[in-house]
Structure formats: structure tokens, C-alpha cells
């Protein structure tokens, strides 16, 4: 049985760890390098790093921060933000990441997914999906719409259809973030996660809304996710990675325990 993963997410702005609610009101809360090291030592299965303003600011990712994080951890490391070409992907991988996460640029140029998979393998290409709940319509039959540029631009693109397309193009994994749930700590948007997980055969990471370990359990059971992305509950010290994984194990979810 494949183990479920617990993945802390480092949203980074101007080199600082930051956190907001529903993609707004971000405040700087610490050093991403120190946080990555701590989460690694606590037993995180993977670390995700997003330079959250790179795409909107039309610039490349801060590779020096990526390099400093990569030097501190020895688990898979996924990096996203401002990655718009195979050359950008290569630079991030050479800086120490095992995976690249593409989002806005992939929506604008879907061939970026297939080009990255051809160059580095599907296992190295993650597609991040920022999703907003909207009224069901002929254009958005699932009721979930893709939004790019850090929640700034709605695309009129159905999230479930886009997930299927990403898999066809060679993506190895999808990270599905609910804008509505992001930062609220009220739980993941399980209907969204399940809809995506049922539509594809590649791993799906649930993102947005974790407030307690129970929410993570729901994501990997009811939501059908392969992994749970977490941020606020560990950034603010509400729970440790170890506490989260111990809860999952105690409730029957297969996880990697390091103690």
C-alpha cells in the first residue's frame, strides 16, 4: 500500500516565509530555510516551496533561497513560482529541487508540461492548480474554475477538465489548492479533491484549509488524495509534523514514521 504523505508548504515572498488567507493579507512569519530544516527533522515526507509573487511580477524564482533550503533537507523538494520554460525548470533542478511545480505558465502554455516531462521525466513535473468554486455552467460543468497569477486572474477553465489534460500532457502529480479554503483552517475542500482524484490516475495533493490532523485524515480518505499539504498549523506551532503523522497512523492511514 502506498504511504500517504505529509507535506509542509513554504510560501515565500521576497525571501521570507509568508502566510495569508484566501490568497490575501499575507504577513511575513519567518525564515524558510530554518522552517524547512525543522520540518525535515520532524519527519516531513517532502517540502514544497512556492515563490508566490514570481509569476505576477513576471520574474524568475529566487534561486539562492532554493539552494539554501535544498542544502538543509534530504527529502524530496518541489519548487514553483515563475517557472515558464524548460530552462527555468533546469535551473531549479540544478539548484537542488527534485521536482518543479508549474501553474500559471502551464495554463497559458500547456506544452510546457509535455516539454518538461520529456526533458526531466514525468516524476519531476508537478502541476499546481489554484481553484475557485463558481456556479455550474456549460463552460465550468464541475463548478470549479482555474485561477492564475496567485488568485488574480480567472481563466474560464474547468478544473476537472484541466486536471485530465495535465495528465495527458505528462504531469506526474497534481497539487490542488482550494482558494476558498486556503488559510482558513476549516478543512480541505473535499468535494474538489475527490473530483480531481477520481478524474486522474496520477497522485493528487490536497491543499488549502488544514486546521487540525483530522482534516488531513479526511483529505487522504474521503478526499482521495495521496498527500496532504499543510502550512498554517505547523508554521504557527499549533501542531508538529510528528503529531500530525502520529494521528494519521493511529487512525489507520499508512504513513512513514521516523521514530
From TrEMBL:
EC number per UniProt: 4.3.2.10
Pathway where it operates: Amino-acid biosynthesis; L-histidine biosynthesis; L-histidine from 5-phospho-alpha-D-ribose 1-diphosphate: step 5/9
Subcellular location: Cytoplasm
Gene3D superfamilies according to UniProt: Aldolase class I (3.20.20.70)
Gene Ontology biological process terms in this record: L-histidine biosynthetic process
Reaction catalyzed: 5-[(5-phospho-1-deoxy-D-ribulos-1-ylimino)methylamino]-1-(5-phospho-beta-D-ribosyl)imidazole-4-carboxamide + L-glutamine = D-erythro-1-(imidazol-4-yl)glycerol 3-phosphate + 5-amino-1-(5-phospho-beta-D-ribosyl)imidazole-4-carboxamide + L-glutamate + H(+)
Entry GO MF terms: imidazoleglycerol-phosphate synthase activity; lyase activity
Protein name, as recorded: Imidazole glycerol phosphate synthase subunit HisF
Annotated organism of origin: Desulfovibrio legallii
Gene name, Swiss-Prot/TrEMBL: hisF
